[in-house]
Design brief:
heterodimer, A: 117 residues, mainly beta, six-stranded mixed beta sheet, globular, B: 116 residues, seven-stranded mixed beta sheet, 11 strands
């Protein structure tokens, strides 16, 4: 079973509009963390936002916010006021402890976002 | 912010040789580092979790003897691709988590390996 599911392989958004990138997850670890990363065509991974499983409020970082719905196991990324520079691949990731007692981070398949002028 | 550096950023090696990729946390200590592999236009695939002072934990399907991981200090982890073959050509990227505090995992710039 997929641990992290991103159902949108590609998305288009008009410049200055808001866009939501979907992410659902599956874990039995009660203490987990969720991340969103941006990967431009150059390849580097850029951290955007983090949400802990016990955090009461949704995380926000500038134009990025994470819509965390714990019961539904979803952690959607909302980008407000899209900019042309936001065009990139976006990955949702989850950090959890395995039954073997070690920590691991797994990634979704990514969503390619293209911002249209 | 925290920086993770990978070296080399690009490497070409001959089939059958070994190549080492370094991952350094420049301004923080990292007891745990992660090694990923990414094929073109695909997601990151976790290869192994590297813990300082102990053996790495490999994901299912990853050959331990082929992808040697060493985490000798709190700031350095290395991935050695042994007896490289053309199918090992890929983008390898490491990440490190702040020790004891912070929830952010920082990534290196990645290393492009081409085996000819």
């Amino acid at each position: 079973a997929q641990k992290i599911t991103q159902t949108q392989p590609g998305m288009f958004v008009q410049e200055k509009e808001a866009v939501t990138l979907d992410c659902t997850y599956d874990t039995s670890d009660p203490s987990y963390g969720l991340f969103w990363y941006k990967q431009p065509s150059s390849g580097e991974m850029i951290f955007l936002i983090y949400q802990g499983s016990y955090d009461q409020q949704n995380a926000t970082e500038g134009r990025y916010s994470l819509n965390f719905q714990k019961a539904r196991k979803s952690a959607n990324l909302v980008i407000s006021a899209s900019q042309l520079g936001d065009s990139a691949m976006y990955f949702c990731a989850m950090r959890e402890y395995t039954s073997g007692g070690y920590q691991k981070v797994t990634f979704g398949t990514g969503t390619k976002l293209q911002v249209i002028p | 912010g925290a920086v993770v550096s990978q070296h080399p950023s690009r490497v070409i090696c001959k089939s059958g040789t070994s190549v080492k990729i370094e991952c350094r946390s420049l301004d923080f200590q990292a007891t745990t580092m992660f090694w990923y592999r990414q094929f073109p236009k695909q997601s990151l695939m976790l290869m192994a979790t590297s813990n300082e002072g102990s053996k790495a934990t490999y994901e299912q399907g990853v050959e331990k003897d082929k992808f040697l991981i060493n985490h000798a200090s709190l700031t350095l982890s290395t991935l050695t691709v042994t007896s490289a073959h053309p199918e090992d050509s890929s983008f390898y990227i490491c990440s490190a988590r702040l020790t004891g505090a912070g929830n952010t995992i920082y990534f290196g710039e990645g290393s492009w390996l081409t085996v000819v």
